[in-house]
Amino acid sequence: MVNARSYISSNFTKSFLTIFLPFFLIISLVYLVKISALTSKIQISFVELLRLFSYSVPDILFYTLPLSFIAALANMLIKLSTDNELIALYALGLNANRILRGLFLVSLLFSFLLLTLSFLAMPMSKQLYKSFKEEKKAEAKLNIVPGKLGQKFGEYYVYIKGKENETFHDLVIYNRTNMDEEQFFASKDGKLNKHNGQTSLLLKDGYGYTYSKERLQQIQYATLEAFDTTKKKRFHFEDIVAYWSKASHDKDIMHRLLFFLFISLIPLLSVYLVAAFTMINPRYQSNHSFIVIFATTLFLYLIASSLDKWGNIPLLIIAILLTLGGGVILFQKRVARYF
C-alpha cells in the first residue's frame, strides 16, 4: 500500500508541476505588465519592480493552485486509467476508495495552503503593495524634472529650466487660488526644503505677480518660501484579526471571506467529483478529461462567485455539503461500485 501511494503521489506531482508552472508564468507576466504600467505615474527601479511583484505572488498562487489541482488530478487519473495502471492496482487488491484516500490527504494540504494564503498572506501583501504605491507617489510629487510641463508641488504648478545637484535654475511657479485670483512667481534659483515633515520650495532672487479683478500687484524678493499644504495620506496597516473582524458589519468583506473560504476548499471538494468521471475503464468509457476539467472548474467558480455577491454563512455550509456530498455519491455510483 505504501508503494502504491508513493506511485500515485509521484504521478500527481509530475502532472501538477507540468500544469502549474506554465499557469504561474503566464499569470506572472500579466501581473508584471500591470506593475510596469505604474512607471507612467511613478519611477521605480528594477529591484523595486521585483519587490512589487513579490507582493503579488500570494494572489497568483491563490488563483492558480485550485485550477492546477483540478487539471492535474483529472489528467493523472485519466492517464493511469488509459494506461491500464489503475486496473493493475485493482487486480493487486486495492479498491478505488483506498486509491483515492491518498489523494484526499494531498487535497487537505492544498486547502490548508490556500487558507493560509487567502486569510494571512494576501491581506498583508495587499496592504504592503498599497503602502509602497503611496510612498512612491509622495516621492514623485517631490521629483521635479527639468523641462517638463504640468508638474505640481502642492497647489502650485512648477516649471524649471535646469537642475544642478539639488539646486533648481530658472524656476517658475503658478497658482490659481480661485476663479478670480492668480499668482505667478519666478526666480533664478530654488531648492526643496524639509522641516519636521513639512516640505517647502525655497525661491531666491526673483519676482512675482498677484492678479485679481481689482488689481495687479508686483513684488521683488530675495527669498520666498512656498509650502506644500496638501494633506498627506498616511497608510494605516491593519493586523489580520482587525482586518477580518470587519466582516461582522461590512458585507463586502463578509462576501470576500466566503469567497476565499470556498476557493480554498476547492481541492477538497473536487477530489471525488473529478474522480467520478476520470477513473474509467478505457475499454468501455471514453476520455473526456477536458470536459471534466472545464465543467468542474466552471461549476465550482460559479458557486464561489455567487457567494461573493449574495452569500452568507448558511449558504456557504449548504454549498460545501452539497458539493462534497454530490461528489461522493457520483463516485460511489460511477466508480466505487465497480472497482
Q: Give the proportion of residues in helices.
A: 55-70%
**Helices and strands, in N-to-C order?**
HHHHEEEEEEHHHHH
Structure class: alpha+beta
- The shape is elongated
| Proportion of residues in extended strands | 15-25%
Task: Write a short abstract of this structure.
With about 350 residues, this protein is α+β, with helices and mostly antiparallel strands. The protein contains nine helices and six strands; from the N terminus they run ααααββββββααααα.
Characterise the protein shown here.
- The protein has a six-stranded antiparallel sheet with strand order 1-2-3-4-5-6, with no helix packed on it.
- The chain folds into two domains: 240 residues, no CATH class; 73 residues, no CATH class.
- It is elongated and about 100 Å long.
- Helices cover 60% and strands 19% of the residues.
- The chain has nine helices and six strands, in the order ααααββββββααααα.
- With 339 residues, the protein is an alpha+beta fold.
- InterPro entries: LptG/LptF_permease, MFS_trans_sf.
- This is LptF/LptG family permease.
Describe the SSE topology.
Blueprint: H1 2-36, H2 46-82, H3 85-91, H4 96-142, E1 151-153, E2 156-164, E3 167-178, E4 181-195, E5 198-211, E6 216-227, H5 240-245, H6 251-264, H7 266-278, H8 289-310, H9 313-336
Antiparallel strand pairs: 1-2, 2-3, 3-4, 4-5, 5-6
Helix pairs in contact: 1-2, 1-4, 2-4, 2-7, 2-8, 4-6, 4-7, 6-8, 7-8, 7-9
